[in-house]
C-alpha cells in the first residue's frame, strides 16, 4: 500500500521545544525548526498540535507552510486567521471571569496563571513543593463555581481548564487525516494529552497507517510509554529523528 499523502504531526512543548522553567521561556529547537521547514516542502502535511493557543504555536515555530492547531484541538491557525471549534467563543468571557476569581485564591509561591483566551492553565513547575502545589490548586478549583464550567485536565506540572466540548488532540489528528486524505502519518508527543493523538494514529482503518512516537524523560507518565509505538529520549532525539526523516523521505519518494 502507498503511505502517500503522508503527514507529520507534532506536539510543541517537551517535544520540539525543551521544557523551560516557565512557559514564556520555552523556545523551539532551531535544529527541529530547520528539519520541519524542509519536511513542509517534502510532505503533504506538517502540523503542530499544542496546548498553547494556535497563534502562539505559530509564533514559536514560525514556519509558513505548517498547519497550527491550538488549545488541544479547539482552534486552528489557517492562513493568518484563527478558526475556532463551534461553541468555543462563549468561553472567552468565562475564562476572564474565572481567572479574576482564581487569581486571588492562588497566593502560593511559584504558581503562574496563563490566559489562553478560550482556556487557561495553572502552572506549578516553579513551586518549591510541586505535589503540594498540585493538590492545593485542585482543591481551590473544586471550590470555585466559575471553574466548574470547565473541564479540568492535567499535564506536565500544569492544571488546565478547558471548555468541556469533548475535543482533544486525538479528534484534531483525525480531522487532519480526513482533511488531507492521509494514508500514512507520524505523531510525536510527550504528555498525557498526546495519548489521545496516539490513539488516533492507531485507529484501525484499511486506508491509514500511523505511528505514535513518545518523547520521554524522567517526568513522563506511564501512559505515554505504554501507548507509544517507540520512544525517543527527549528533544535531542527528536532533532536526530527529524533530521533522519529529512534524509529518508526523498529516497522513499523516488
Ligand atoms: Mg508537550
Give the strand order, joined by hyphens, for the main sheet: 5-4-3-2-1-10-11-12
CATH superfamily of the largest domain: HAD superfamily/HAD-like
Percentage beta strand? 15-25%
Overall mean confidence score, pLDDT: 93
Which regions have little confidence, pLDDT < 50, spanning 5+ residues? none
Please compute the radius of gyration using only Cα atoms. 18 Å
Order of helices and strands: EHEHEEEHEEHEEHEHEHEH
In CATH, the architecture of the largest domain is 3-Layer(aba) Sandwich
Helical amount: 25-40%
Task: Describe the model.
The chain has 254 residues and is of the alpha/beta class. It has eight helices and twelve strands. It folds into two domains: 6-85 and 167-253, 3-Layer(aba) Sandwich (Rossmann fold); 91-162, Alpha-Beta Plaits (2-Layer Sandwich), CATH 3.30.70.1020. The chain is globular, with a radius of gyration of 18 Å. The mean pLDDT is 93. The structure holds magnesium ion.
Amino acid at each position: 500500500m502507498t503511505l502517500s499523502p503522508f503527514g507529520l504531526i507534532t506536539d510543541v512543548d517537551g517535544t520540539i521545544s525543551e521544557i523551560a522553567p516557565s512557559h514564556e521561556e520555552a523556545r523551539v529547537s532551531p535544529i527541529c525548526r530547520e528539519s520541519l521547514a524542509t519536511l513542509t516542502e517534502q510532505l503533504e502535511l506538517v502540523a503542530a498540535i499544542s496546548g498553547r493557543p494556535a497563534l502562539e504555536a505559530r509564533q514559536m515555530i514560525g514556519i509558513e507552510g505548517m498547519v497550527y492547531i491550538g488549545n488541544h484541538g479547539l482552534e486552528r491557525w489557517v492562513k493568518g486567521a484563527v478558526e475556532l471549534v463551534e461553541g468555543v467563543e462563549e468561553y472567552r468571557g468565562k475564562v476572564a471571569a474565572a481567572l479574576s476569581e482564581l487569581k486571588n485564591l492562588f497566593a502560593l509561591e511559584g504558581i503562574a496563571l496563563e490566559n489562553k483566551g478560550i482556556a487557561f492553565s495553572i502552572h506549578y513547575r516553579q513551586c518549591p513543593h510541586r505535589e503540594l502545589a498540585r493538590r492545593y490548586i485542585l482543591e481551590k478549583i473544586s471550590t470555585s463555581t466559575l471553574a466548574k464550567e470547565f473541564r479540568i485536565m492535567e499535564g506536565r506540572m500544569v492544571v488546565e481548564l478547558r471548555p468541556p466540548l469533548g475535543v482533544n488532540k486525538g479528534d484534531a489528528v483525525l480531522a487532519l487525516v480526513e482533511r488531507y486524505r492521509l494514508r500514512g502519518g507520524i505523531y510525536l508527543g510527550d504528555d498525557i494529552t498526546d495519548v489521545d493523538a496516539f490513539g488516533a494514529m492507531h485507529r484501525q482503518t484499511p486506508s491509514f497507517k500511523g505511528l505514535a512516537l513518545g518523547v520521554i524523560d524522567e517526568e513522563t507518565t506511564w501512559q505515554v510509554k505504554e501507548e507509544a509505538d517507540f520512544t525517543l529520549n527527549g528533544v535531542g532525539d527528536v532533532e536526530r529523528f527529524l533530521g533522519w526523516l529529512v534524509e529518508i523521505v526523498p529516497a522513499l519518494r523516488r
